[in-house]
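On clarity, I found the account of how folds are encoded harder to follow than it need be. Since the whole study asks how a given chain folds, the encoding of that fold should be made plain. For the editor and my fellow referees, an illustration may be useful. An entry of this sort, consisting of the sequence and the corresponding backbone structure tokens, reads as follows:

:::
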Amino acid sequence: MVKYLLLLALVSMNLYLAAQQDINTPSRMFWHQDFSSGRLPEGWINQAVNDSNLRWECTNQPFPGSYGRDQQAPPIASASGGFHMQYAPAVRIDKYYRRWEKAGIWPDAYFQTAAISCSGRSSVVLTFQQNFMWNDWGKVRPGGGLYVGVSNDGINFKEYEVRHDIASEADCPNPMHVELNISAIAAFQPAVYLRFYWKGIYAWYWMVDDIELSEAPEADLSASALVSHPLAGNTFTNADIFRFNIVNLGSKALSQPFDCYLQVDNRPALRQTIPLSDKKALAVVDTIVAAFPPVDLTDYGIHTIRFYTSLPGDTRRS
């Protein structure tokens, strides 16, 4: 199956990453939540972690803007639409953030699911859609970020930072599709907990919707990220080298070579073969980098960059 990562570039690069299941592929999803009830599901936790009393909201409204400003952000354009979970500390923090900063306090808060049974599931993949914007003024606490935690006891959480290199005040794709293979923590577990945790940042907002758990296909590559170029501030040259991260989200290690392709505008696609073998396999959730020969980007100031992988037996495209 061929998988795509598309980029539109104008000196800076905006990243558009999507994952879509094939129509003819049976769904392997076994749990989901889209907040269509308009309220926090029963048994879930909504917790402020300091005296700020700022908590997540289940809402269908836009980010209302911060103190003294009116720059709203639209609701997340998730697949289900409507109600979603939203955390918007900037609404109340902006006016008093210097007091918070002086006191060494940040508006940390999380929401957490009730126990989810993953018994009998040999692999577990977490997917969700998000939209966010964060700002580094007022200092970001060391270790601050947007975290998704996974636990099989409700106490000890494995955390994943999910800003995906989106810079301060930079736009996030709306929505950004996030996919995490959490089999190491969740597979065969009778009780699994998910936690979405805003930590150590004063502003602006985070929206989350369409949370799903599914079993991983045997073969499933994710063309996950461009790692050779920042999302802003690029100066194109006559020898730009593109590198992309590829993650094995399948249920088994990959030991057969597969091809990757890079297409710039309407030029012929460049092909690179990832030389896997039994001795050099790509383990589950491991990442490998695909690097391409230098390309000349000086002819125009705007380019369409397409990156895709081709893996026999891959049941999804992204």
Summary: Confidence is low (pLDDT under 50) at residues 6-25.
